[in-house]
Every structure is written in C-alpha cells, then in structure tokens.
Amino acid sequence: MDTPGTPGTPNAQDAEGTPAPIDVLVVGAGPTGMTLANELLTAGASAVLVDKLARRSELSRAGGVQSRTLEAFDQRGLLEPLLATGDHPTATSHFAGIPLPDVPDRHRLPWRSVPQVTIEGFLERHLSARGLRVRRDRALVGLAQDDDGVTAAFADGATLRARYLVAADGAHSTVRSLLGAAFPGEPGTLTIVAADVRLGGDEPAASHTWAEGGHWAALFPLGTDTEGRPLRRLVLGGPEQSLLPRETPVTEDDVRRGLHTVFGARTHLVELRYARRITNASRQAEQYRHGRVFLAGDAAHVHLPLGAQGMNTGIQDAFNLGWKLGAAVRGRAPAGLLDTYHAERHPAGAAVLRNVRAQSLLMDWAGTRDPGVVATRAIFTDLAQLPDVRRHLADLMSGMATRYPMPGTELHPLIGLPVPDLDLGAGGRLHPLLRSGRGILLDADGRYAKAAAPWSDRVDHVAPAEGSHRGADVEPVLVRPDGYVCWAPPAALEPTLTHWFGQPH
Fold first, then answer.
1. What is the largest CA-CA distance in the chain?
2. Is the pLDDT of residue 410 over 80?
3. Helix (H, G, I), strand (E, B) or coil at 166
4. β-bridge mates for residue 209, sequence order
5. Are 58 and 198 in contact (CB under 8 A)?
6. How do strand 22-27 and strand 47-50 relate by DSSP bridges?
7. Contacts for 112 with CB less than 8 Å, ≥ 6 apart
8. SS3 helix, strand, coil % of the chain, rounded to 5?
9. What span, in angstroms and rounded, lies between the C-alpha atoms of 68 and 490?
10. CA distances from 22 to 26, 46, 120, 128, 334 (A)
C-alpha cells in the first residue's frame, strides 16, 4: 500500500484535508519517462509515473545504448547493474551503415547492445526498489493548467494534480495533442521492416548489404536469448516494402523473402520474435515547454531509428530536465532555469534529425541505387577511415558532440560538454560523485572553497586526493548535476553558481 506523502504515492492531504499536488506527473513509462522519474527522485522531488498500457511491452524496439547514455547511467550508479542483466556485447557505431570503429580513449565507453525491453524492465525494477511503481492502465484524456499546477484527467474518471507534467508518451503523444502543440516536419514517404530475429546458416560479412533491384538489409547484434543463442535486429527495405502502409502486418514469409532476396540461400530465418513497419517521418515539436508542461523523448521528436538515436536522445532529454524540475519544486531554481531545457535540448534534437536525414540519403532507404548516391557513399566511406572524421561522426551519433551554451563563461575545451570520468587519485573517479544528483566543484588546492561555501547545500566541493600526481593535475571545473561542465577559470565562479543553482543560502 502506498504511503501518503512519499515519492510516487497518491496525493497527500494538507492540513485542511485537501489533496496536495505531487511535484511532477510523468506520462509514459518508456526509457525516457522512467529515466526522468529516477532523476526526480534523486533530486528530492515527488513523482507519479503513469502509462496507458496495462503491462510493459515485451518488444525490443531500440537495441543500442550510446556512449553518452552509458556515461549518464554510470553517473547515477546504474551502468554496472544494467550490464549485469545479461549478455550485452559491445557494438560498433555506424553512420549510414558505415562502421565507425572506436578511436581509443579511456574516457569513452564503447556502445553496448542492450534491447529497449531490457532497459525498461531494469528501470522499472529500480524505480520499484526506490518506492515508485508505474501506475498502468491509466489513459490520459484531458489536462488543464493554471499558475499553480496541472490537473490531469484519466479515462477511468480519476484526476491528479501536479505542479508540473512531463509528456514522455511517444510519437503519438496524447499530451501533445491535448496541448495542440505544433509538431512540424516531413511525413513518411516510405516504409521499411524492422524485426528481431534468430538466423541460421552463414552470417553476412557486412552489416549492410544491397542486392539487385534496390533491395537491401541491415543486421545489428541484440545480445542473446535465454539459451545463449545470438539474436539480431534485422531491417529490410526495397520496392516491395516501401509503399506498404505502416499498419500492414509483417509475416514470416515477408522476412524470409527479404532475406532470400538479399542474402540468397546461405542465410535463413529460424525465429521471428517481433516485427513492425516503420516510416521515414521526421518531426520535431516547435516548443519543448508549454507553461508547466514539458515534452520529452518521442513526444518531442520523431525520425528513423538509426543508431538508437530516438531512445538515447529521449534519455538525454530526461537527464537534462530532471534536475531542473527538482530544483524548481524545491524552490531553488533561478529565474529561467526551466527555459534552458528547450534552449539546450531543442537544438540537440534538431541535430539528430539532420544527421538522420543525411544517413537516410546515403543508405538509399528507397532502394533507388542512384549512381550519384552510390558514388557519394563510396567517397564518404573512404573519409570515415580518417580518425578525426570517424571521431566526429561517432560523437555526432552518440550525443558526445552536444555542447550546451553556458552564459558568462570563458572559452574552455570542456565548457558545455560532458565531464570526463576523471581520475581523482587514490583510486577515486569523478562519475560516482555525481550519484547524489548535486553539482560538483573540483578544486584541487581549495582556492574556490570560500566562494562556493554559500552553495554547499546543493554543490559538493571536491579536492582530489592529496599527494596524488593525477589528482593535482585536475583543473578546477564546476559540473552540473547532469554531468555537464558549466564553469572553469578564469570566469567568475559566483555568477555561474547563481545562474545554475540559484541564490546562495
């Protein structure tokens, strides 16, 4: 039974018996919504997480976790438990199917093949252990907001009052529709098949293969099933598939025919676990904030699922928004902090849509095999062998290239970027220090301790291990709760602390 007044519980009663609003209502229990709920709990906010589905989906959907998402999970102590859930091999990132082998860097985590269904199950169990359970079979049918909060109405007649509401309810977001929020972009012009399969016969030599007549296939690892047998994400395209409506069911014969057309008799279907048709529709919400309502994940941006960028971008939306909402409900948010969610994440989403459009052209989704596209792809493949180009494209795909604007700071190589997992000496690392959800001021010689002291209730002052050569080499930086560097000398520290963390106590 839920205990009134604790995170994830029904509205508590105030002194007059009137239901007091919970801090944040999160609509949608996918990776974005569950990550956001966890961030809210870490920030000390109360949250309710609802989903219209009666039970969690068992479909894998996305299958890869990018470097930046892995870092963020590590910063919350979630990475090792997630990877312990099964066999999740490292994966090579790609741009338009062109492999991008990792450029060695001890601070850069290699991609992992972790199906979305595994991530959702892991996060739901983690939230339950923290006292927050997903309220399922709760279909939102109405919402109204005023100066103090948002009232949500559900199909079963129940209502819920929250200070803020976050829509993480997918591409066909009910919240976005109820808001009448503009969602411009390009409609889908073709469909392709995405399926989770177990294959027999010869493993194709390349992840992407083209055949005569514009037919093509792409294969990506998905780990193994319960008996240790390898699973694959299969994507099929070509003239036979491109004009079929998205709602048309995918049959085993469709998949077998596609495999035979592209790979011949050497590769065959053993098991079809899940399949659907997806389109190349590309849209982004004009605004991520609508008063006290925020859009995140697929509710804010949709595109072809290349490189698992939809899931990973949504998770990054959640990490960006969670600590800011936590500060707001605790009365510590400086003016304009919540507006920085749109200012930072909308350009990040737009950048994803741009690279997806470029990849779609180079991959020839429509199966035209246009000579100009083939020639361009060949040159692009050669360029991708250059380490600097490969690093740039890999960062573009993984979210590592996202650089947030940090007003009032001097130019510094780390400003606006994710902080590396620095070695702080004596076996200490930076990432574990972020598990509290507080800001971190790294200050080896203590010169900024007095200036930062008035923010000690929300920013931890950390001096790397004394006597450690590596620790002494760590430059002073201020890191936000989401792991992004927001200050470094010679900029003044106090204005930056006020800008991101509010007035001192």
1. 74
2. no
3. strand
4. 217
5. no
6. parallel
7. 64, 65, 70, 83, 88, 89, 90, 91
8. 35, 25, 40
9. 27
10. 11, 6, 24, 18, 21
- Alpha carbons 468 and 453: distance in angstroms, whole number: 24
Residue with tokens 């509401």: 165
Give me the mean pLDDT over the 326-352 stretch.
96
Looking at the predicted structure, is the pLDDT value of residue 385 above 60?
A: yes
Lookup result for tokens 């470097």: 67
**Helices 309-329 and 67-75, axial angle in degrees (round to 10):** 30
What does residue 276 show for φ and ψ, rounded to 5 degrees?
A: -155, 165
State which amino acid sits at residue 255: V
Strand order in the sheet with 477-479: 459-462, 439-442, 477-479, 485-487
* pLDDT score at 107: 58
Residue positions counted in the chain: 505
Q: What DSSP assignment string belongs to 369-436?
A: --HHHHHHHHHHHHHTTSHHHHHHHHHHHHTTT-----TT----TTTTSBPP--EEETTEESGGGGGG
pLDDT tens-digit series, residues 308-332: 788 999 999 999 999 999 999 999 9
**Is 388 in contact with 352 (CB distance < 8 Å)?**
no
Two tokens at 197? 């399969």
Q: How does DSSP classify residue 208?
A: E
* pLDDT per residue as tens digits for the range 33-61: 999 999 999 999 999 999 999 998 776 67
Within 251-363, strands assigned E span 267-279, 282-284, 289-290, 293-295, 301-302
Under the banding of pLDDT at 50, 70 and 90, the label for residue 292 is: very high
Model pLDDT for residues 137-180, shown as the tens digit of each residue:
999 999 999 999 999 999 999 999 999 999 999 999 999 999 99
Residues 6+ apart with CB under 8 A from 333: 324, 327, 502
Amino acid letter, residue 495: P
Cα(294)–Cα(300) distance, integer angstroms: 9
Is the entire prediction scored with pTM above 0.85?
yes
Per-residue DSSP letter, 107 = T
Does 490 sit behind a cis peptide bond, omega within 30 degrees of 0 on the bond before it?
Answer: yes
Q: By three-state DSSP, how is residue 25 classified? A: strand
100, β-bridge pairs = 93
Label residue 1 exposed, middle or buried (CB < 10 Å: 0-12, 13-18, 19+). Answer: exposed
Average pLDDT over residues 245-253: 91
Joined together, the tokens standing for residue 300 give 């804010």
At 473, the pLDDT band (50, 70, 90 cuts) reads: low
Cβ-in-10-Å burial (0-12, 13-18, 19+) of 279 comes to middle
Q: How many helices (H) and strands (E) does the chain have?
A: 14, 26
Q: What is the predicted pLDDT for the residue at 144? A: 97
Q: Residue 217: how many CA atoms within 13 Å on its side-chain side?
A: 25
Segment (H or E) for 116: helix 116-129
